[in-house]
Amino acid sequence: MSSLKRVAYFFGLPILLIVLWWALSFGSTNFFVPKPIELAQTLWTTWIGDRFVEDVLPSLGRLAVGLVFAIGLGIVFGLLIGSTRWLRNLLEPLLEFFRAIPPPVLVPLLMLLIGVNDSMKVAVIISGAIWPVLLNTVEGVRAVDSVLNDSCRSYGIRGLARIRYFVLPAVTPQIMAGVRQSLSIGLILMVISEMFASSSGLGFTIVQFQRNFAIPEMWSGIVVLGLIGLGLALIFQFVERRVLHWYHGLKEITHDS
């Protein structure tokens, strides 16, 4: 696909939707739905400046720390649980139990245990974003080719060498699929954690705008969250293309044949 076509695909539909929004809101006096130009002006005046430093950057920092811990812990515990059959059988019911608990209900509990601080917000992100990575890693290790596994043992490849050169490459596609889900879950939980007993952050600011009937400002905060989500998706695609270059190349060869 040419670069021009990629750009057309990337911007085409958003531009079409904005034009449709402008046409539908033309001449409208609805207080709760701002016009595109008004929203763009509000987005610039509201978020470019002190508010970016005081609200956006702290939110991004908490999100980054929470995702790094969630992905790291998910991979480590997933490899450990997936590689040990008795441990997997022992923990499987417990994992299913904790996975079924919606992370937002843990916010009041974590506030009591940790306190109202950044650690609580990071813990909320970890509590929800860890599960896709953890469970995908466990399933990936479980699905490793048994013949190749026996071959590794025959050649005496064990311990960390087996994990590095055999298990990790085999489960990386499943891990990356879990990471993709974790990014969106982490962003949602970042906003929710900031809506409880917080004095800064995107979630707190959007709620304040809503309570003060600052409707265009509230919409602009939602747009900022969408742009952050888009940025995370682009970064993920960039990293995935490099980590799984062999996997995508294999798929293209299989597809061509």
Report on this model:
With 257 residues, the chain is an all-alpha fold. It is built from 11 helices and no strands. The two termini are 20 Å apart. The chain has helices at residues 3-25, 36-47, 50-83, 85-99, 106-114, 118-142, 146-154, 159-194, 202-211, 215-243, 245-256. Helix 2 (36-47) crosses helix 10 (215-243). The longest helix is centred in the C-terminal third of the chain and has 36 residues, at 159-194.
State the main characteristics.
single chain; 257 residues; mainly alpha; MetI-like fold
What's the topology here?
Layout lengths: L2 H23 L10 H12 L2 H34 L1 H15 L6 H9 L3 H25 L3 H9 L4 H36 L7 H10 L3 H29 L1 H12 L1
Helix pairs in contact: 2-10, 3-4, 3-6, 3-8, 5-6, 6-8, 8-10, 9-10
